[in-house]
Design brief:
- The complex is a heterodimer of chains A (444) and B (84).
- Chain A has helices at residues 10-23, 36-47, 132-136, 171-175, 179-186, 208-216, 227-231, 276-285, 289-297, 356-369, 375-391, 429-443, and strands spanning 27-29, 52-56, 65-71, 74-80, 86-90, 105-107, 110-112, 119-121, 126-128, 152-156, 159-163, 193-195, 200-204, 245-249, 256-260, 300-305, 309-316, 326-327, 329-338, 341-351, 400-402, 420-422.
- Chain A is α+β, with helices and mostly antiparallel strands.
- In chain A, strands 12, 13, 14, 15, 16, 17, 18, 19, 20 and 22 form a 10-stranded antiparallel β-sheet that branches.
- In chain A, helix 1 (10-23) packs antiparallel against helix 12 (429-443) and helix 2 (36-47) crosses helix 12.
- The longest helix of chain A is centred in the C-terminal third of the chain and has 17 residues, at 375-391.
- Chain A is globular.
- Helix content of chain B is 17%, strand content 29%.
- Chain B has 2 helices and 4 strands.
- With 84 residues, chain B is of the alpha+beta class.
- The longest helix of chain B is centred in the middle third of the chain and has 7 residues, at 39-45.
- Chain B has a 4-stranded antiparallel β-sheet with strand order 1-2-3-4.
- The chains are: A alpha+beta (444), B alpha+beta (84).
Chain lengths: 444, 84
């Protein structure tokens, strides 16, 4: 791995060397989870060069539909033009930089700046300038002054990503083999997914990496953090239920997945408990038989894409009265706001062709367990905020965290999917892989 | 009457009766403009591409007056002129 380069302050250089020395041995310094100088480097080296999830195409299905989304603090209008093409336009008037669109979602054919009235088509072209001739003269060329598009915009199975780096590798190359695991949800039905409303959003005083690791590798925390749900009878009785699965990482990419099956002796329906008709459709909609067979044995699936996107697809008993089990799917972006501070964007999604009764049940299941009102979410965020606080305290920042779980595990040679898989989900393997990639980008 | 609004503007729409027929009145109360369209004009709207509306919005706050030359204030300050 590259050595820490000059150009970084001596202080930060020493700290990065500490991370570099510790990561293979499963030692991660606490300070990386709340440090202003490191955050500035993350902005430049990671978030300015990575593919960042922006939206699902079902959020903007019709011409004029738009949502505002953010890469770092850059606001982008993600809008479907009258021509049906999706664009991401920097929400910044070319005249004096005012926001031209301040609603978080809507439908508009044109955007008009409230400062001086410059007006843009929803494809970004400048079409209206008040008193144009008097103010700017006859030779003013509006074509040179359109809204600025994001340097790169690409989609995978309805998932739209943006990248601030015009030289970035393609999204396909960025994703690599994690596609196999993404497809376990994107290709579960021939119709694909749709969002159930706009994302819920809330601010948490924590670091994006801390939030992310819960969804990337930390099945271990369910034992304690979510114990109350076991006691309430709405999570499996075996508190180690999230241990019974595979943890897979994609070397060199930073991505990872956790694929969890039913705990021994638990009577959980196959295929997450999705309705039988959906199981039948999945037989032909999955690209490979291995994916279908994996999906049939899966009860909880998590996928995390480097740097800050995760989805979680668990089977859940929606409450203690309901006799069945209902899966739910949430996408989320751990959007960095500053050192030790994130905004969570959390969507609920469902297969477009799922029966209506199921869509409603899965929506309710999401609301109970995830999203801003969700019990799991409140358990997690309370804890994440204290960890980030401690990571910035004068004494706490000198400690190292133990990422040694599963350090001696051997990969599972029988796993049918790509990546490096371990047959026990109680391991920090995905996080160690994440930190390798994280360091590689910080140091490049 | 009903109202359509977004973050850029508000318009009200109502069917108005004349002695011999009806029109649709579209008003922009904040701008002070109003237009009453007959069915044929409304029909013509149905085949307008977005370019038509972009052209209309090239003057974002309503029509600019044609042929008006910007006149400097110094023209009005008549040093040694008729008020001198």
């Amino acid at each position: 791995m590259a050595k820490v380069k000059t150009g970084v302050s001596p202080r930060l250089s020493r700290m990065l060397e500490e991370l570099q020395e510790g990561v293979e041995d499963g030692l991660v310094p606490a300070w990386i989870f709340n440090d202003p100088e490191l955050f500035e480097l993350e902005k430049e080296k990671i978030f300015s060069r990575s593919w960042v999830y922006l939206a699902h195409e079902s959020e903007i299905p019709k011409p004029g539909d738009y949502v505002l989304r953010y890469v770092l603090d850059n606001p982008y209008i993600l809008v479907r033009g009258e021509d049906g093409v999706v664009r991401a336009l920097l929400d910044m008037c070319r005249h004096r930089g005012m926001r031209v669109c301040r609603a978080e979602l809507g439908n508009a054919s044109h955007f008009r700046c409230p400062f001086h009235g410059w007006t843009y088509r929803n494809d970004g072209r400048l079409i209206g300038v008040p008193a144009e001739r008097e103010a700017f003269g006859q030779d003013f060329n509006k074509e040179e002054w359109g809204l600025v598009p994001i340097p790169r915009l690409e989609a995978f199975d309805g998932m739209i990503f943006g990248n601030l780096d015009p030289e970035a590798p393609s999204l396909e190359e960025w994703l690599g083999e994690i596609r196999w695991y993404l497809e376990l949800v994107t290709k579960r039905s021939p119709q694909g997914l749709e969002v159930l409303g706009p994302p819920q959003r809330w601010v948490v005083h924590t670091d994006w990496k801390l939030a992310l690791e819960t969804f990337l590798s930390d099945s271990y925390h369910t034992l304690m953090t979510h114990r109350s749900l076991i006691e309430l009878g709405i999570a499996p009785k075996d508190a180690k239920y999230a241990m019974y699965g595979e943890q897979i990482h994609i070397p060199g990419k930073g991505h990872g997945s956790m694929v969890v099956g039913a705990p021994p002796g638990a009577k959980l329906p196959p295929f997450w408990g999705y309705p039988e008709e959906m199981l039948e459709r999945a037989r032909t909609s999955y690209p490979t038989r291995e994916q279908f067979e994996t999906a049939r044995e899966t009860r909880i699936l998590l996928v995390t894409l480097f740097p800050n996107f995760s989805f979680h697809n668990p089977i859940r008993k929606p409450d203690h009265k309901y006799q069945g089990a209902v899966p739910m799917l949430t996408f989320r972006v751990w959007h960095p706001l500053g050192p030790g501070r994130i905004e969570i964007f959390s969507w609920a999604l469902v297969e477009k062709d799922a029966p209506e009764w199921f869509k409603e049940k899965t929506r309710l299941s999401y609301l109970r367990f995830f999203g801003s009102s969700g019990t799991f979410e409140q358990d997690d965020t309370e804890i994440w905020s204290h960890v980030a606080h401690n990571a910035a305290t004068p004494q706490g920042r000198h400690l190292r965290f133990n990422y040694r779980m599963g350090l001696k595990l051997e990969p599972d040679p029988n796993w049918p999917g790509p990546g490096v898989a371990y047959g026990l989900n109680f391991t920090d393997a995905n996080m160690r892989n994440f930190h390798r990639r994280y360091l590689e980008m910080l140091l490049s | 009457m009903f109202t359509l609004t977004n973050e850029f503007t508000t318009v009200t729409i109502e069917k108005v009766q004349t002695r011999n027929g009806e029109r649709l009145r579209i008003s922009a109360p904040r701008m002070g403009y109003s237009v009453e369209l007959d069915p044929l004009e409304l029909e013509a709207l149905t085949w307008q591409p977005v370019e038509t509306f972009s052209r209309l919005l090239s003057t974002p706050f309503g029509p600019d007056e044609e042929g008006v030359e910007a006149r400097p204030l110094s023209d009005l300050i008549l040093f040694g002129g008729e008020h001198g």
